[in-house]
Amino acid sequence: MVLFNKKTMDDVVDNLSNPDLVKGSSLWQDAFLRFRKNKAAVSATVILALMIILSFVGQWFAPWDYETIDWDLMGAGKDGGQPSLSNGHYFGVDNLGRDLFTRTLQGTQVSLLVGLLGTAVATFAGLFYGAIAGFVGGRVDNIMMRFVDILMSIPYMFIIIIVMVVFGRSVNLLFMAIGLFAWMDMARIVRGQTLAIKNKEYIEAARAAGVSGMRLITRHVIPNLLGVVVIYTSLLIPSLILTESFISFLGLGVQEPLTSWGALINEGAGQMQYGTPWMLAFPLSFFVVGLFCFLFIGDGLRDALDPKD
Amino acid sequence: MLLFIVKRLLSSIPTLLLLIIVSFVLMHLAPGGPFTSEKDLPAAVLANINAKYGLDQPWHIQLWNYISSIIFHFDFGPSFKYKDISVNQIIAQGFPITMTYGLLSFIVATVFGVSLGISAAVKHNTWLDYLAVGISIGAQVLPNFIMAPILIIIFTLWLELLPGGGWNGGQWQYIIMPVIALSTSYMASIARLTRGSMLEVLNSNFIRTAKAKGLPMRTIILRHALKPALLPVLSYLGPAFVGMISGSVVIDIYFGTGGMGQFFVEAALSRDYSLLMGITILFGVLTILFSTIVDILYAWLDPKIKL
Question: Which UniProt keywords apply (chain A) (predicted)?
Answer without folding.
Answer: Cell inner membrane, Cell membrane, Membrane, Peptide transport, Protein transport, Transmembrane, Transmembrane helix, Transport
